[in-house]
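Recap from last week: sequence in, structure out.
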Amino acid sequence: MTPHDTAVLRVAGRPVGRYVTRPELPPRLAPRPYLHPVTTLAGTAVTELSPADHIHHLGVGVAVPDVEGSNFWGGRTYVRDQGPTELDNHGAQRHTAFQLRDPDGFVEELRWVAAGAELLRERRTVAATELTDSAWALDFTFSLTNVTSGPLSIGSPATNGRPGAAYGGFFWRARKEDSAPDVFTLDREGEREIHGTRAPWVALTGSTWTLIFAGATEQTRRDPWFVRAEEYPGVGSSLASEERLPIPAGETAVRRIVTVVADGRISRLEAASLVRKAVSP
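Predicted structure tokens:
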């Protein structure tokens, strides 16, 4: 892999994330750029790449299981009245260029292609910012523009008939440890209480690290959280929860998620304070 295929994010001079733009992956994994490894300021890894339980989970990125029937998530496709099914319908996100590239972030152009056709064009803006001596923030914005001649829509297994499986959008596959991480919001605790609900932020706490995910725009905060802790640790922001997300021709859907990456186990009050510091108006 050439240096042009990766970008290293740095905070206060320390590397905290490696961004791979052109991964060599089989089509079934829906090849796409991803951040891995992402680490705390002390160097603890807080992402996983192609873990045995879900080999199509690729660190931090944008993954969508249904764009007009094409799978940009990887793995099997949930088919209504049939269940998870192996289909030859996988798309790929192709890095086009960096519009901006600095040690603390970048602006990237991507093409979402399936069956030889471009469905979406994406502008992805990523920035890393120091918050404290033990915490930094990953500011991740993606804009998806429909470049086809007609309307298209984004779906999920939930909109295709599988309750509780509204994954698709920004997704962070976290580090798996011997015991499941704790999950909490300002007023709720546990995967069952939080999964599928809306909250300004949700925290995932492991043995020596904490991740705090915050919707950074009003539109993003309307999307429910997809939360997994017991089976595997992962958090996403759901683009299509109760119904499909339509994107008319030429229109753009934009979402912004800011993730606080902290050393240690953070309390509710500390989490709320860090989110306020990380999410600017």
